[in-house]
Amino acid sequence: MTFGDTLARVPEILEVESYRQLADRVVGATIVRGWADGYLAKKLTSPAAWARSVKNLTITGTDRRGKLLLLETNGPTLGVRFGMTGVLLLDGDAGIEGLFYGPHDFQSKWLRGGVEFDDGRKLLVHDPRRMARFEIDPDLSELGPDALRLTRKQFDRFVRVERGDGPAIKARLLDQSRVAGVGNLLADEMLFRASLDPRTPTGLLSGDEKDRLFKAFRSTMSSLGKRGGSHLGDHMDSRFPGGLCSRDGGAMVIATIGGRTTYWCSTHQG
C-alpha cells in the first residue's frame, strides 16, 4: 500500500508526502496561469499576487518540510500549506482519496486555487474548510527538522530542555518549531508504541525512555507510511470514549494536551 491508496483523517506529514509525490509529475512543466481565492491567498498581499508571481515559472523540483509542500522553480519557491481538509489534485488524480474530517468526495465549489501548465494539466487545491494557504518563498526558519528525516542527533536536541521540566512530551511532539510534521495522530501513536504517558514532562524523560521514543518515532513513520497514512496506527481501533487498548485491554484515557485531544492506555502508558 502506498501513501496515496487510502482515506486519511487530516493531512499530516505522511499525507503531504503523498502530495509531494503527486506534484513530482509536473516537474519540467511551465505555468501559464495561476489563480487563488481570498482564502488560499490569505498569507499573500492579494489573490492577484499569486497569479503574477507564478506565471511563466517552470517547476524544477519538489520538496517538503513537515506539512509544508514546496514546489521549486526557476524563480521563487512556491509553498502550499493544507490546513485540516486540503487535498492536492492533478487533473483527475488526488494525492489521497479523501479526508476523514472533510467530505469524502471532491466538488468544484471547494477548489480554492492552483496553477495551469503549458501542457494543459492543472494542479489544484481542494479545501472545504478553507484553511489551506499559498506562500511565495516561505520562511523555513520557523520550522524544525523534517520528521521523516529526523536523525538521532536532531532527536536529542528535540528532547533537550534548558530550564525546568519542560512541556509535556505530547506537546513537545506537536511543536513544529522543534520538529516539523508530527500531527496529533502520529504523536499519540509514537507514545503508544514507546509506552510513554503523554503527560510526562520532556525534561524528566530517562535515557531509556528517550531511546524507546526515538525507536517508536522512526518505526511509526516507516510502518504507517507503508500502511497508507497517519490514521492507520496500532491504537486507532481503541481511539474512542470507552475504548480498550488493543495491546493489553487497558482502559483508554482521554485528555487535552498541547491543545489537542489525546488518547493513551492507562496500563502500558500509565
How would you describe this structure to a colleague?
The protein is an alpha+beta fold and 270 residues long. The chain has 2 domains: 3-141, MutM-like, N-terminal (N-terminal domain of MutM-like DNA repair proteins), CATH 3.20.190; 145-265, Helicase, Ruva Protein, domain 3. 24% of the residues lie in helices and 21% in strands. The protein is built from 6 helices and 11 strands. The protein has helices spanning 13-23, 47-54, 152-158, 169-174, 184-194, 207-227; strands spanning 31-36, 59-65, 68-73, 78-81, 87-90, 93-94, 111-117, 122-126, 133-136, 252-257, 260-265. Strands 1-7-8-5-6 form a 5-stranded antiparallel beta sheet. Strand 10 and strand 11 form a beta hairpin. Helix 5 (184-194) crosses helix 6 (207-227). The longest helix is centred in the last third of the chain and has 21 residues, at 207-227. It is elongated. The chain starts with 12 loop residues before the first helix and ends in a 5-residue tail after the last strand. The relative contact order is 0.16. The model is unreliable at 1-8 (pLDDT under 50).
